Amino acid sequence: METVINVANILAENIKESNEYINYKNLKDEILNNKDSASDLIKFQNLQAKLQRAQLLGEELNQEEFDLAKNLFDELSKDEKIKNFFDAEFEFSQMIKKVSEILSNVMEV
Length: 109
Known about the structure:
With about 110 residues, this protein is mainly α. Helices cover about 85% and strands about 0% of the residues. Helix 3 runs antiparallel to helix 4. The longest helix has 27 residues, at about 80-105.
């Protein structure tokens, strides 16, 4: 098991050093240092998490909240820094998804 843990730590370090993570982290920090942008982004992320949680639990999605999330996303995307953050977040999540798929395929999950 120690070997697996060591390899997992190496993977984590490689992820931390990846362009995808560095870009994501830098853009996130930049946005969070701007009070207005941070507040708007956090509001959107909280609403997004609430909708995703409801979807995972098989609950009916609240159309009003769904529309609000879409409108917030559209408004936030007009800000170049936040748009770049959304793009970087997507790229980073795709990398993590690919790592997860590799592990799942190897373990036949």
